[in-house]
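Researcher: Here's the sequence for the chain we discussed earlier.
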Amino acid sequence: MSGHDPFDDIGDYFDGEEEVSKSAVKREMHERQALGKELAELSEKAREKLDLPEQLIAAIDAYQKITSNVAKRRQLQFIGRVMRDVDIEPIEQELKLLRHGATLAAQQHHQVEQWRDRILQEGDTAINAFLEAFPQADRQKLRQLERSARKEAELNKPPASARELFRYLREQLSA
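Model: Thanks. This is the structure I predict for it:
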């Protein structure tokens, strides 16, 4: 028998740090690639709001210019590799804020549409309800816009006053 025990060296592999499994490394790599793809799909204006390193910006710009699917996949892998050296926590937070902002804007748009439709259908009762919720609004302007929008609808004219009412309501809701 040999005097060498193969398990004597096992302590050399564990130097106080926990070993990361291969599947955990792959999972993290795929998460970074998915984040990179999400960054690449953002508009340039939205990406400028994020504080991204130059190398990552260059990799994303290259990704957007590529048309081949295989080459795009390789470039995504490269973006994931570049992102290994980047702290992705702040980037994820900013993306979450961007997504949440878009949701809020859609909700506000929907609320303005509901108020406009309600004012056009109910008239003064809806105007009074709107003024209770938003006392800074001008009653006279609301009534004028409501009357002219109804008149346009009766005469089958383009809804210019309804659009103006929508803009005014949007201003009041955001004020």
